[in-house]
Amino acid sequence: MLRTQLRKYKLFSIVIMPISKQKKTQILDVLDKGFKTAETVVFVNFHKLPVKELTVLRKDLREAGVTLYVAKKTLVKRALDTKKVTGTQPALEGELALAWSVDPVAGAKGVFEFTKTHKDQMSLMGGVYQGAYMSKDEITQLASILGRDQLLSKFVGMLNESIAQVVRVLNERATVLGAGAPATAPVVVAEATLEVPEGVVPAIA
Question: Fewest Cβ atoms nearer than 10 Å: which of 38, 65, 199, 205?
């Protein structure tokens, strides 16, 4: 009877191997480098997310320039303590993953969009923005801000629309003033384009 119970236990138990000192050092090194370059770090609880979906999330975020990294909470807290982050650290529940990027919005937005189709499997828990802790609500608000590329695209669109309005007014005035006179060529202005150097992101109020 006892042997049968032990066999059942072995079938369903998970053996958690301790992390070696060398592995801990490697993890802390990855976290240290990531935190140094990141504008924003997002805390993600993925306690019910299947491995396959986690792989998809990691791939989607990587394409957006965001790193997704899974680490033990004790090591994450140790790494954060060395950065002297201000404010109150949000509760880190469930299985913890970190999403960080030099883009202040990309990480939060990428994870937030993914949670829309995986609401019962993962969630935002808060994060760090410019050296200060953010709550779950604050990091969610950050995720709602337009990203760098979206902001630039919207700005160029508005700029082109304004130029088009000016051109229409000038052409209309030329038509009125030139009534009865030889026709003049209409005013043509090329669409505006905007180039921003790498690493430069729009400021967030």
Answer: 205
Type of residue found at 51: V
One-letter amino acid of 156: V
Tokens for 162, please give them: 């304004």
Nearest to 104 by CA among 85, 123, 77, 128: 128
Phi, psi of 98 (to 5 degrees): -115, 140
Predicted TM-score (pTM) of the model is 0.64
Closest residue by Cα to residue 44 from 88, 109, 102: 109
Over the chain (205 residues), what is each successive 10-residue block's mean pLDDT? 46 54 94 94 95 95 96 95 93 95 93 94 95 95 70 48 60 64 52 53 46
Q: Where are the alpha helices (DSSP H) in the chain?
A: 2-12, 21-37, 51-63, 73-82, 106-115, 136-143, 148-177
